[in-house]
Amino acid sequence: MSHAMSSGGWQALVGIACLVALGGCASSSTPNTAWTQPQGAQSASSRLAAPQQDEGDTRRGACGEEMTATTGMQISLIRQMLNDDKPRAALAHLDDLSLDANRGSLAEPRLLRGEALRKTGKRDRADEVYATLTETCLAADAWRGIARNQAARGELETALNSMQRAREARPIDAAIRNDLGYLHLLEGQPRQAEDEFLTALELSPGYSRAARNLVMALYAQNNDRQAEGIAQRYGIDQEDMALLRQTRLATAERTATTSSGVSSVSASAPSGAGTAAITHTPTERPTAPGTLEIIRQ
To answer: What is this structure's pTM?
Structure first.
C-alpha cells in the first residue's frame, strides 16, 4: 500500500472539521466508556455493566470493593444519567453519593465523576480525577479519558501516548483500539491506524464506527478497492462513502498545495466533508467546525 497522505495533510483536517469520537472520539448514541460499549463493541470491562452481587445486601464494585446494594443502585442510576447525556445531573447525584465517607474509596464513582466533568468541559478537573485511577483496575478508562482531553486541547502526540497506555492496560478493549487508531490517523500514520481498526473489528465485529475509520485509513493509503469492500461488508451507505471520498480528495489537494509552496489555508474541504464523516451517521455530524473533541457524549 502506498502512503500518499502526509502528516501535514492529515493534521490539516483538524482545522477544517470537528472531530468527535475516536471514538473518535465519535457518535451513535452509546457512550464509549468502560460500562457501555459503542455500536456493539465488547471488552473485558463488561464486568462494569452490573456490579457483582453477593449474597445478602452487599455488592462488589468494579475493582472488588464492598458496597451496599443501595450504593450499587445509585451508581447504576448515575451511570445511566451519563448514558442519557445528563452529566450535570450525574454530578449532582455523585455529590450526594460522596456524602457517605465510606464510598470515597470506590473506583467507579470516581471514573463517573471524571466522565461527567469531561462532558461539561471541565477537562482540567476531570484529569485530576482520572489521575487517581491510573493505578487501579480502571487504569485503561482513566488513560483513555486523559487522552481524550489531551486531544481536545490539540495535544495529539501526547494523546497518542496516553491512549497507548490505555491499550496496554486493557488490550482487548475494542473501543480503545479504535480510539488509538484514530489518533494514528490524525498523526499521518494510516498503516498503524489500519491495524488498530482491524483489531477493533476482530474483537467486536459489529463495531460500525471502527469500520468507517478503517475505510478512511484505507483511502489514506489509496487502497480504494479494499475500502469499498469493507464498506460493502459493514453496510456503510453511499452518502457516508461519498463524504469519506471527498475528505480524502480534500486532503490530497491540501497536501499538494502545501508542497507547492502555497499556504494550506487556501485549500477548502467540500461542504459537509471532514473527519466527522468518519465516525458519525449523517444525522450526527457536528456543525461547529474548528474544534477538536475525541469523544462527545
So the answer is: 0.71
